[in-house]
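WP5 quarterly update. Target: ATP-binding cassette sub-family D member 3. Source organism: Capra hircus. Length: 641 aa.
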Amino acid sequence: MAAFSKYLTVRNSSLAGATFLLLCLLHKRRRALGLHSKKNGKPPLQNNEKEGKKERAVVDRVFFSRLMRILKIMTGYLILIAVMLVSRTYCDVWMIQNGTLIESGIISRNKALFKKPFFKFIAATPMISLVNNFLKFGLNELKLCFRVRLTKYLYEEYLQAFTYYKMGNLDNRIANPDQLLTQDVEKFCNSVVDLYSNLSKVSLSQMYVMNMTAGPASMMAYLLVSGLFLTRIRRPIGKMTITEQKLEGEYRYVNSRLITNSEEVAFYNGNKREKQTIHSVFQKLVEHLHNFILFRFSMGFIDSIIAKYLATVVGYLVVSRPFLDLSHPRHLKSSHSELLEDYYQSGRMLLRMSQALGRIVLAGREMTRLAGFTARITELMQVLKDLNQGKYERTMVSQQEKGKYEGAQDIPLIPGIGEIINTDNIIKFDHVPLATPNGDILIRDLNFEVRSGANVLICGPNGCGKSSLFRVLGELWPLFGGRLTKPERGKLFYVPQRPYMTLGTLRDQVIYPDGKEDQKKKGISDLVLKEYLDNVQLSHILEREGGWDSVQDWMDVLSGGEKQRMAMARLFYHKPQFAILDECTSAVSVDVEDYIYSHCRKVSVINSQSLLPVYSYYLHMDGRGNYEFKQITEDTVEFGS
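Structure tokens (predicted):
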């Protein structure tokens, strides 16, 4: 019994009690989650309904799992910061000890005792300043390195194949990915580095001070209790952070949307309507930020009391206990100067420790906010991973409920079950259901074949599936069944109605997506590029814009017709086996259109019936799920677009 009682010290009892309290709270939380799971008949966080997809943004096991998943991408820079943190901690402790010696020399009126630590302090000042500023420099570099590595990783996934297209058109889990890839990544990296620095610095200080002082168990117990309490009441911060970032993204989107479509809005004189839209979105953001500010105000009030002032009170109590207890064995034989020296050193050590523990408690606030950014980044990473594996989530529309096409509901809508065979000089749809990603079936069973060199006119009313056919052909949309035989992606070339003009030179507009080095590898000279411009009657633009290396904002510099002709010149440059022209000459005059079509053979979507003699076959869709594929003869009647 005596052997056991010697371990029942105040320090050990406090630590044991705090540990027991922590384990009880964790057990209670796990049990509550288990009961919730049994009640619903499924684990929490696996609800597939729209309302159940809200991300958890609290500091729990899921948060740390998410955080470690992201930090795996950013390892390799932490050791250097850790070394600097150790140096900084050593400097702080040395400053306390040396400062105590200086004050002891002053109080004892001993010049020799004063001079030695005083000149040591002067000599150490440059090194201490260097360590402090080098630590700041290292932390800023670490933030930048984290952002670079995480951004590179995300863009490797985002720009892999057609993932960027699928995220905005096939999957509806992520809204405003541009904000996630820019602002959220930056804020996450800054937050995690600050948290790592603060916690590491405080942990080192605690370990060092605990080895040099007595009675820190009370501080540790206070840390655990106050930390658990504050973490509990801070839980809404994570969800509020997610909502804030989403509203910021929506606000930026409506502004960029107005910039993109400013000309159309100006023609409609829609400035008042756009003003209402922007103000409405901005008002939602302002209301949320106002509520967030009020919540942080209340949390700041509680944080200041618990983490700052009460932590200082506990520090004073711990420091004063051995000095106010006259029978304490520590100071029975100490002189007055020794008592002063011990008081200054112990007091500063424990007060520094109390402040460090207070910073840990306050770090929980940043950790809760970090949980919001972590949830958004990990959600983005998961969606990118799913899309690159051919998986996507989108609300499927039941054709049985809509009753659009008779018998359409009998087709199993399973994305990706169709077979794609890459073969040169042929496009063949073999029992392929033409369906949109959200489940709208346009044609039940599509069958036709086109050989290289054949010209096919594809026509039908709006919404019948003309552009949808080419999205399936370009592998932008999943194949819901059947077999599609076609050349590889690089041997198909799509020319849309609204051409894309890249950032760069005039040459880049013709050879896109190739670069100048790719042009050289293909052995195509600038004279050949000029011939391509001649084919679309656009060679005058060379002199007008200042040559091939002229850099302009080509989306604004070129007119609608010029952009369409530039896209056709781009087609001549790439020389694909099949060209898919989706109303790509709608802004070009008839005579120029005839001149362009005389230089190419293609598979096209077109509204102009004047070009009917150019084609040898037609594919007509009626918009009700029916189609016909026939050869064009003299008896073929011109049908509607």
